[in-house]
Amino acid sequence: ETGVTQSPTHLIKTRGQQVTLRCSSQSGHNTVSWYQQALGQGPQFIFQYYREEENGRGNFPPRFSGLQFPNYSSELNVNALELDDSALYLCASSLESAVDSGNTIYFGEGSWLTVV
Amino acid sequence: AQKVTQAQTEISVVEKEDVTLDCVYETRDTTYYLFWYKQPPSGELVFLIRRNSFDEQNEISGRYSWNFQKSTSSFNFTITASQVVDSAVYFCALSDYTGTASKLTFGTGTRLQVTL
Fold it and tell me: Which of A11, A36, A90, B79 is the most exposed place for a label (fewest CB within 10 A)?
């Protein structure tokens, strides 16, 4: 086990609705990243939070937003859901610094989102 | 741009066979990190190994071994005497430091099926 926990594990939403996914990072880790994994694909980077600030973002529209809390837990919010948002959403935590240290990124089990 | 190619979409072997999963990467960075993750049906990405670009020594961990060749931009993964429990999707990933955030660029994965 990685110590990264996510909730909910599975959910079904209707197109146009909004969803919030939650993540608790591994103890001591100050950085949380979110990835989207469509069926049959590798995970794609959505964004990263470090010390409660978004410090990096992938090629995802603004309707994908997030938060990081003082205890380093995090939320991913997706507004105006589309059918293509159906995917496994993975949260990852790591211990980052101001430079690229190549620290290992540990993933949770993910939240399976189905948009109908 | 960073790119990871896993040309083998699916591999099927019989238990106790050796199997090699290929990974080829592209990067302009001189310092970078390579990773392998295992993804069982549950969805969690399980960390297997991290290798930095300055360390070309092969590594062995039990039945697992990794061959890193900078000259060919490859980081291949071999499972010796495969077992049914090795059945999973395996992802190769490359670190990408944006100046503020560290993210992983994944390949599309190789599905390994080990049968009795």
Answer: A11
Among the partner-chain residues B42, B100, B105, the one whose CB lies closest to the CB of A56 is B100
pLDDT single digits (tens) A12-54: 999 999 999 999 988 888 889 999 999 999 999 999 998 889 9
Of B20, B8, B99, B104, the residue nearest B66 (C-alpha): B20
Phi, psi of B6 (to 5 degrees): -120, 95
Question: For residues A86 and A113, is the Cβ–Cβ distance under 8 A?
Answer: yes
Within an 8 Å CB–CB cutoff, is residue A60 touching chain B? no
From the list A44, A26, A107, the residue with the least C-alpha distance to B48 is A107
Q: Report the SS3 class of residue B53.
A: coil
Size of interface A-B (CB pairs under 8 A): 76
What is the distance of C-alpha B30 from the center of its chain? 20
- Facing B47 at nearest CB: one of A40, A43, A104: A104
Per residue in A51-70, pLDDT (tens digit) is 889 988 999 999 999 999 99
* Record: contact A100-B45, CB cut-off 8 A: no
Provide the shortest C-alpha distance from residue A37 to chain B (in Å).
Answer: 10
